[in-house]
Amino acid sequence: MIQISDSDFHPRDPNDRTWTETTFLPFFIPEPGIFGNVYVLARPNLGIAISSILVSEGLCVQPYEVDFTDAQMHLPCPTSFSKYTLANGLSVEATEGPKAYRFDYESALGTCGFNLDFKGFHQPFDPHDPAENPLIAKASDPRVGTAWMNGHFEVKGHITGELKLRGKTYQVDCYEGMDHSWGPREEIGTRSVSWISINFGKDLAFHIAVPLDLEAGDVTYDKLRFGFVVENGIVHGLVDSKIETSRAELLPMGITVWVKDIRGKEYEIYGSAVAGHPWYSFNPCHVSFQCCMRYRYQDKTGYGEVGDIFGLDYLADKMSRAGRRSRT
């Protein structure tokens, strides 16, 4: 079970150069198709941090179409991960342990800024607790890597605040999830995994983590790694999933999601992209082909992220000239 202390840095071997702690928050404004990310990767043993802020409008197939990117490496690492300010202008505070956060940001040139409050509405999901994750006993998958096998939590919440983007101000009012991961992490770009978020408000929301395959340019989704549904404030672990997408290049444009939870309850959900982009700047060895989807389930309409994350070496092995030659 996730504790209040899990919002901060965790005990670690001070000699482990790979020890990593991350925080991730996506947010969106559906009407104009605004989709943004806040990401921090800290390596406290090395004293450095990475931060990537990205905001795009509409569907951006190429990175140069993205409206704002601020990706900075080798920032001084904060001494606390529950309340800190980075040199790029981002401040983060866990105002209520792992269930509530405040994110404030102002870019160096004033072209982007935001003040966002995240209020979680359930106990954060711990994928390492067998009482919460019915799939905890499954073996590791090399496409997912071992980072998820270390510390991690996911929590759904309500995001409110204000975004300034290149001279225009927007009000933010959406439901999404945020997460925090910690543990040893080698940066080797051989992974392929999808993080899918579906949010219909406080009454119903989903998180799904599933490995990916890519063959001849076609992306397929394998068996569920872990996930949950939070319904009326109660979290239920998922036990099975089936996912299909239509795509533009590697961006997911449409999606069909079927999941079953530990109670045996099944859900079939349909989504179509309202915004998206390839996000190359959150980690030098990975790219996330990421879209904000408008979802439909029965009479409900919601929104959320689909992030198909590929290691760049994984893509090279599958799609580059040399990779294709070596595989044949």
List the main descriptive attributes of the protein structure presented here.
328 residues; mainly beta; AttH-like fold; ten-stranded antiparallel beta sheet; eight-stranded antiparallel barrel; 19 strands
Number of domains: 1
User: What integer is the average pLDDT?
Assistant: 95
- Taking strands numbered 1, 2, ... along the chain, how are they ordered across the largest sheet? 4-3-2-1-10-9-8-7-6-5
Gross CATH architecture: Beta Barrel
Structural class: mainly beta
- Number of helices, counting only DSSP H or I runs of 4 residues or more: 2
**What is the CATH class name?**
Mainly Beta
Gist of the model:
With 328 residues, the chain is mainly beta. 5% of the residues lie in helices and 59% in strands.
Explain this structure.
The structure is a single chain. This protein has a single domain (18-327), classed as AttH-like domain (AttH-like fold, Beta Barrel). The chain is 5% helix and 59% strand. It contains 2 helices and 19 strands. The strands form 2 sheets. Strands 4-3-2-1-10-9-8-7-6-5 form a 10-stranded antiparallel beta sheet, with no helix packed on it. Strands 11-12-14-15-16-17-18-19 form an 8-stranded antiparallel β-barrel. Helix 1 (312-319) packs across helix 2. The longest helix has 8 residues, at 312-319. The radius of gyration is 19 Å and the shape is globular.
